[in-house]
Specification:
This protein is of the alpha+beta class. Helix content is 52%, strand content 12%. It contains 4 helices and 2 strands; from the N terminus they run ααβαβα.
Amino acid sequence: MAKADGSYSKELAKLERTQLLTLDDFGIQPFDAQSRAALMEMIEDRHGKTSLIITSQLPGKQMV
């Protein structure tokens, strides 16, 4: 729904303008395919331009 009305693109544009984005408690719940794609798009858009911090309380091997 958000993609259809343009709000998804607006929210991504806001995130792109943020100098530092922090994703806290990352990996607590599994991602579906659409969420994984959105996350990868966000990371790719920020790569080499702005900062991103991802934190998790899970051991590294559980995130894979």
